[in-house]
Amino acid sequence: MSAFRLVVFTGAGVSAESGLGTFRGPGGIWERVRPEELATPEAFARDPGRVWRWYADRFAAMRAAEPNAAHREIARWQERFASVVVVTQNIDRLHQRAGSRDVLELHGTIWEARCEACGFVIDMPTAIDLEPGGGPPRCRCGGRMRPCVVWFGERLPEAPFERAADAAARADVILAVGTSATIYPAAGLVELAAASGAKVFEVNREATPLSRLAHRTIRKAAGEALPELTAELEAIAGGRFE
Ligand code: BJW
Ligand code: ZN
Known about the structure:
elongated; 3-stranded antiparallel sheet; binds zinc ion; alpha/beta; binds ligand BJW; 6-stranded parallel sheet; about 240 residues
């Protein structure tokens, strides 16, 4: 018997109970703004001040937010299972703040800003302080700083994506939590895991395109569902640590 491998694939819904808005669905961010107006390189080129301020406001909310019961339960699984890889589409770092050590950020992080011209990276609080006027600060090379997130039409960071694909291909169970699973290539990781023989678990308040792949679906809020799932995962893992 080989060691039990769990991949936890998360989206905005896992942070909803920390008070952070999701993108799609009722009350979602995209009901108020159109993605192509803000979350694209073209939008940033057109109106850098607007896009920067939108991220600075969201950063303030994410910094003030606390990890919830779902983030904490996922972090606890590290002590119970041989391998737990958290693959997240979230930019808020709440998994790391809850104690998860192996977190792959597929869509970057709002905690850093980088220069469009030379790639120099600084942390977001410093970047915000550099420009009290509220726009994106300039790098020492003269280039404009931007949030270290992945916009539509941009490539995902290669190293975390490759590690995530490898973990998905080797997983015994992949658990998708709080994601509409509509954004590619991230959503394709669950299809890859399923095709490689993993059991697919889904925790989401609503049905998603993944639901048809799922061996087990739990239609509850993540903070309630995940602590309840622990015993079930332990039964599947069966103490496989080596
Ligand atoms: C709860 C809950 C609770 C609520 N408990 N659950 C194939 C076909 C067509 C198009 C494409 C394709 N492949 C790629 C594309 C283009 C595009 C794409 O996927 N478009 C789709 C519309 C189809 N993809 C891209 O552009 C990607 N890049 C790319 O493909 O590059 C290719 C390339 C190659 C070579 C050179 C250059 C390029 C990049 C995608 C980047 C996505 N970025 C964003 C913004 C990040 C920064 C920011 O935050 O502003 O990432 S968009 C947004 O969506 C964000 C999220 O990470 C992502 C996913 O959303 P998520 O997390 O699933 O949230 P929601 O809101 O959708 O869902 C929340 C869920 O939670 C819901 O289901 C609720 O029910 C549930 N929920 N409360 C449990 N308490
Ligand atoms: Zn620079």
